[in-house]
Give the backbone structure.
Amino acid sequence: MGLEFGKLVSMMNYVRSTTIDAVKDLSMEELDFLYDEEANSIGMLLAHMAAVERAFQIDTFENREFTEEDLRRFLPRLELGTKGRELLKGKTIDHYLKELSEVRNTTIKMFKTLPDQWLFEQTPFWGDRPANNYFKWFHVFEDELNHRGQIRIIKKMIQKRKG
Protein backbone atom coordinates (compact mmCIF):
# COMPACT_ATOMS: atom_id res chain seq x y z
CA MET A 1 0.00 0.00 0.00
CA GLY A 2 1.36 3.40 -0.98
CA LEU A 3 2.12 6.33 1.32
CA GLU A 4 -1.10 8.22 0.52
CA PHE A 5 -3.24 5.13 1.08
CA GLY A 6 -1.36 4.56 4.33
CA LYS A 7 -2.29 8.05 5.54
CA LEU A 8 -5.92 7.55 4.55
CA VAL A 9 -6.20 4.10 6.14
CA SER A 10 -4.62 5.27 9.40
CA MET A 11 -7.22 8.03 9.68
CA MET A 12 -10.04 5.63 8.81
CA ASN A 13 -8.78 3.09 11.37
CA TYR A 14 -8.53 5.71 14.10
CA VAL A 15 -12.09 6.88 13.52
CA ARG A 16 -13.36 3.30 13.44
CA SER A 17 -11.59 2.40 16.70
CA THR A 18 -13.18 5.38 18.47
CA THR A 19 -16.58 4.42 17.07
CA ILE A 20 -16.18 0.85 18.33
CA ASP A 21 -15.08 2.11 21.75
CA ALA A 22 -18.25 4.21 21.93
CA VAL A 23 -20.62 1.32 21.16
CA LYS A 24 -19.00 -2.02 22.00
CA ASP A 25 -20.84 -2.58 25.29
CA LEU A 26 -24.32 -1.44 24.25
CA SER A 27 -27.34 -3.68 24.68
CA MET A 28 -29.94 -4.21 21.97
CA GLU A 29 -32.28 -1.97 23.95
CA GLU A 30 -29.68 0.81 23.93
CA LEU A 31 -28.93 0.29 20.22
CA ASP A 32 -32.67 0.61 19.42
CA PHE A 33 -33.37 3.56 21.76
CA LEU A 34 -35.24 6.44 20.11
CA TYR A 35 -35.42 9.69 22.05
CA ASP A 36 -38.42 10.77 19.98
CA GLU A 37 -40.55 9.44 17.11
CA GLU A 38 -38.36 11.03 14.43
CA ALA A 39 -34.96 10.15 15.89
CA ASN A 40 -32.28 7.84 14.60
CA SER A 41 -31.14 5.10 16.94
CA ILE A 42 -27.52 4.17 17.54
CA GLY A 43 -28.12 0.94 15.63
CA MET A 44 -29.49 2.93 12.70
CA LEU A 45 -26.40 5.13 12.70
CA LEU A 46 -24.08 2.12 12.73
CA ALA A 47 -25.98 0.54 9.82
CA HIS A 48 -25.75 3.90 8.04
CA MET A 49 -21.96 3.98 8.47
CA ALA A 50 -21.61 0.57 6.84
CA ALA A 51 -24.00 1.53 4.03
CA VAL A 52 -22.14 4.78 3.30
CA GLU A 53 -18.89 2.88 2.97
CA ARG A 54 -20.53 0.30 0.68
CA ALA A 55 -22.01 3.12 -1.42
CA PHE A 56 -18.56 4.62 -1.89
CA GLN A 57 -17.19 1.21 -2.83
CA ILE A 58 -19.80 1.06 -5.59
CA ASP A 59 -19.01 4.62 -6.70
CA THR A 60 -15.22 4.47 -6.62
CA PHE A 61 -14.25 0.81 -7.08
CA GLU A 62 -17.06 -0.33 -9.35
CA ASN A 63 -17.61 3.04 -11.09
CA ARG A 64 -21.32 2.47 -11.49
CA GLU A 65 -24.71 3.81 -10.49
CA PHE A 66 -26.81 2.00 -7.91
CA THR A 67 -28.93 -0.85 -9.23
CA GLU A 68 -32.51 -1.40 -8.11
CA GLU A 69 -31.20 -4.13 -5.79
CA ASP A 70 -28.63 -1.71 -4.31
CA LEU A 71 -31.37 0.86 -3.70
CA ARG A 72 -33.68 -1.69 -2.11
CA ARG A 73 -30.93 -2.88 0.20
CA PHE A 74 -29.13 0.36 1.05
CA LEU A 75 -31.59 3.24 0.74
CA PRO A 76 -33.19 2.76 4.20
CA ARG A 77 -29.67 2.67 5.68
CA LEU A 78 -28.50 5.70 3.75
CA GLU A 79 -31.58 7.87 4.23
CA LEU A 80 -32.57 6.54 7.68
CA GLY A 81 -35.89 8.19 8.64
CA THR A 82 -39.17 6.28 8.84
CA LYS A 83 -38.07 3.31 6.72
CA GLY A 84 -34.87 3.02 8.73
CA ARG A 85 -36.80 3.04 12.01
CA GLU A 86 -38.98 0.22 10.68
CA LEU A 87 -36.16 -1.97 9.39
CA LEU A 88 -33.09 -1.20 11.47
CA LYS A 89 -33.85 -2.59 14.90
CA GLY A 90 -33.61 -5.77 16.89
CA LYS A 91 -29.93 -6.40 16.13
CA THR A 92 -27.08 -6.97 18.57
CA ILE A 93 -23.88 -4.99 18.71
CA ASP A 94 -22.10 -8.04 17.27
CA HIS A 95 -24.29 -7.76 14.16
CA TYR A 96 -23.37 -4.10 13.60
CA LEU A 97 -19.67 -4.62 14.36
CA LYS A 98 -19.53 -7.56 11.94
CA GLU A 99 -21.19 -5.46 9.23
CA LEU A 100 -18.74 -2.59 9.79
CA SER A 101 -15.78 -4.97 9.79
CA GLU A 102 -16.81 -6.77 6.60
CA VAL A 103 -17.31 -3.59 4.62
CA ARG A 104 -14.02 -2.17 5.90
CA ASN A 105 -12.14 -5.36 5.03
CA THR A 106 -13.42 -5.05 1.45
CA THR A 107 -12.30 -1.42 1.33
CA ILE A 108 -8.78 -2.21 2.56
CA LYS A 109 -8.49 -5.20 0.21
CA MET A 110 -9.36 -2.93 -2.73
CA PHE A 111 -7.07 -0.12 -1.56
CA LYS A 112 -4.16 -2.60 -1.62
CA THR A 113 -4.72 -3.17 -5.34
CA LEU A 114 -4.65 0.50 -6.32
CA PRO A 115 -1.77 2.94 -6.87
CA ASP A 116 -1.64 6.17 -4.86
CA GLN A 117 -2.40 8.22 -7.98
CA TRP A 118 -5.90 6.63 -8.06
CA LEU A 119 -6.73 8.74 -4.99
CA PHE A 120 -6.25 11.90 -7.06
CA GLU A 121 -8.42 10.88 -10.01
CA GLN A 122 -11.41 13.23 -10.35
CA THR A 123 -14.94 12.31 -11.30
CA PRO A 124 -18.26 14.15 -11.04
CA PHE A 125 -19.71 14.14 -7.53
CA TRP A 126 -22.55 15.85 -5.68
CA GLY A 127 -24.24 18.00 -8.28
CA ASP A 128 -21.67 17.04 -10.91
CA ARG A 129 -18.92 18.98 -9.16
CA PRO A 130 -15.50 17.36 -9.57
CA ALA A 131 -14.08 15.47 -6.61
CA ASN A 132 -11.16 13.12 -6.32
CA ASN A 133 -11.25 9.69 -4.72
CA TYR A 134 -9.25 10.96 -1.74
CA PHE A 135 -12.04 13.41 -0.91
CA LYS A 136 -14.70 10.75 -1.41
CA TRP A 137 -12.98 8.41 1.04
CA PHE A 138 -12.32 11.29 3.44
CA HIS A 139 -16.09 11.83 3.37
CA VAL A 140 -16.67 8.21 4.43
CA PHE A 141 -14.86 8.65 7.73
CA GLU A 142 -15.94 12.27 8.14
CA ASP A 143 -19.55 11.05 8.00
CA GLU A 144 -18.71 8.40 10.60
CA LEU A 145 -17.12 11.04 12.86
CA ASN A 146 -20.27 13.16 12.74
CA HIS A 147 -22.49 10.21 13.54
CA ARG A 148 -20.18 9.07 16.32
CA GLY A 149 -20.83 12.46 17.90
CA GLN A 150 -24.57 11.79 17.64
CA ILE A 151 -24.02 8.37 19.21
CA ARG A 152 -22.28 9.95 22.20
CA ILE A 153 -25.18 12.37 22.67
CA ILE A 154 -27.74 9.55 22.42
CA LYS A 155 -25.77 7.54 25.01
CA LYS A 156 -25.99 10.53 27.38
CA MET A 157 -29.76 10.68 26.83
CA ILE A 158 -30.01 6.97 27.63
CA GLN A 159 -27.99 7.44 30.80
CA LYS A 160 -30.20 10.34 31.91
CA ARG A 161 -33.34 8.24 31.40
CA LYS A 162 -31.86 5.38 33.39
CA GLY A 163 -30.88 7.91 35.88
Observations:
- The longest strand covers residues 122-125.
- The mean pLDDT is 94.
